[in-house]
Design goal:
By secondary structure, the chain is an alpha/beta fold. Helices cover 23% and strands 30% of the residues.
Length: 365
């Protein structure tokens, strides 16, 4: 049996607030990282909390993990290693220690360590990234007693140095997998690497919209949020709402070939963003008229779509033309009708779900 211990007891002192609550892909950093690691071939998992345990415990709800609160976390990393190891079943033959603030070190890394351990029987297996030693690290049962003897603010490197003949390195080419989330720059880089910020924009404002002072992060309603350092106003990174129309003619759907990024050159359903204070249906008719030249009447709702880590909520409608002349705008290189079974390359990930719902609605009941 292979065990996994996720170390999440740190103070987040460099960040200045509980960094494991920061949002990543629509989840907290802690839940996202643990969720990814659980996809690896491990049979028992312990997550070791310490500082901010009262805030972080709820992030692990519904996950198949044992939550361990290390009351001695301030004494150093060794106490978390010992606490996590002690929480696992005595049937565990080897344990993988992973860090909760390394979300890029995915289940594939853990799987590679486990497979190499199974093939070679080496007692210490760790990855190297671009030649640099990294984590997670696998230790086999013969070394458990030495881990339990560690003390102070040290990890298990001294055990690795003590047993050079037991070590097996598993190379990975990218050093990005080494990245810890210790600073705001690290956090923004990780979000971009995971696709949270696909247009390379900052994830939030930097200055207060009320008084213009610099924003700083603070804990608000159990979540880190940007707040004004002068007047205290909290800035909420709310999602943007977009509307699109499925316009059908003779069983074919109208698509627009995008003239700009994101998705330049690929095809999408015509539509656009809703202005502040604008009704959804009004925004849709306006956007269709501006993008295609058609005047439409809305005939039904297809669905509402969102995905973790993406800043847009999409509302899709059925619509039929009642006037106007089809013509592309500056937003579309071309407009054309396509059979549903012969669609071109689509621009966005939500298109497949939208089409599936549209096909389902067209089936005879």
């Amino acid at each position: 049996m292979i065990g996994l211990v996720v170390l999440a007891a740190g103070l987040s002192s460099r960040m200045g607030l509980p960094k494991l609550l920061l949002p990543v892909q629509g989840h907290s950093l802690l839940r996202f990282t643990v969720g990814r690691l659980l996809e690896s071939p491990v049979q028992a998992t312990a997550v070791v909390l310490g500082a901010h345990a009262d805030l972080l415990r709820d992030e692990l709800a519904d996950l198949p993990v044992t939550v361990v609160v290390n009351e001695r976390y301030a004494e150093g990393l060794s106490t978390s290693l010992r606490a996590g190891l002690a929480a696992l079943s005595p049937e565990v033959d080897a344990v993988v220690f992973a860090l909760a603030d390394q979300p890029l070190a995915s289940a594939e890394v853990v799987q590679a360590l486990v497979e190499r351990y199974g093939a070679t029987g080496r007692s210490i297996v760790y990855p190297t990234f671009g030649g640099q030693q990294g984590t997670p690290v696998l230790f086999a049962r013969p070394l458990f007693a030495e881990i339990q003897e560690l003390s102070g603010d040290v990890g298990a490197r001294q055990i690795i140095r003590r047993h050079p003949g037991a070590v097996l390195e598993v190379p990975f080419p990218s050093t990005e997998l080494l990245r810890d989330v210790d600073t705001w720059e690290d956090y923004e880089a990780v979000r971009r690497a995971l696709g949270d910020d696909p247009h390379d924009q900052a994830p939030s404002a930097h200055y207060c919209p009320r008084c213009g002072a610099a924003l700083a992060w603070k804990l608000v309603e159990r979540r880190p949020r940007p707040a004004c350092s002068r007047c205290g106003a909290v800035v909420y990174d709310d999602p943007k709402v977009a509307v699109v129309a499925l316009i059908e003619r003779d069983g074919r759907l109208l698509l627009a070939q995008r003239a700009h990024e994101p998705g330049k050159g690929r095809w999408s359903f015509p539509g656009g963003f809703v202005d502040r204070g604008e009704e959804l249906e009004t925004a849709l008719c306006r956007e269709i008229r501006e993008e295609t030249g058609l005047r439409v009447v809305i005939s039904g709702l297809v669905g509402v779509y969102s995905r973790a880590g993406h800043p847009v909520v999409l509302v899709a409608y059925l619509a039929r033309p009642v006037g106007g002349a089809l013509r592309p705008s500056h937003e579309a290189e071309r407009l054309a009708f396509f059979a549903p079974e012969a669609l071109p390359e689509m621009a966005f990930g939500s298109d497949a779900r939208l089409l599936a719902d549209w096909r389902c609605a067209r089936r005879p009941q």
